[in-house]
């Protein structure tokens, strides 16, 4: 992984005497068997000043999704690495591996300001897409939710938006794509949400997935009752499975 980041100039070598801050770095294994490099920036984050920025939260997601919506969730791969850090700030994002010293040239996702900087950058692209299409867009940092009532229009615009993002250098993670749904009763959805509620206390991402599922369940129950069958999109399931696996690894 380090070799790949060096080739892509995500990280670059730095002389030891020029380092201003060391950050512990380690690897964790993801649910799909691949490895993720973690830069422990907790100590650095305590030194960074706070500033306010409005992010799309789970409540806004629930309010935006309507009954009958067709949706696509685009997962951007290595999203923060598209942003280059100011040269004078790079020595604060240094780490050591096998007696060699490196610094991040591209932004890691572990600093507390990384989501804000990325959301600000990609929002400019999203604004242009909103102006030129009828697609409703919720930008959840590295996850972009596209919504529309018309299935064919939504499908066509999704491909155009993917092409636009690729034009600007972004890569779409297709490993989690699931194009079909599964039939499940509203009661079964409620039972599943109840079993997974403990994840809300552990991971912020879990609240988003569970809130979306809960919103779909509530709308279906209100319109047609608790015993009807609904089509549930399974896109969130791999993410929830990953969260459960991550929780188990930390226990």
TrEMBL record:
Domain spans labelled Reverse transcriptase: 8-197
Alphabetized Pfam families for the sequence: RVT_1 (PF00078)
InterPro entries: DNA/RNA_pol_sf, Rev_trsase/Diguanyl_cyclase, RT_dom, Viral_Replic_Matur_Polypro
PANTHER family assigned: POL PROTEIN, RIBONUCLEASE H
Protein name: Reverse transcriptase domain-containing protein
The species this protein was found in: Streblomastix strix
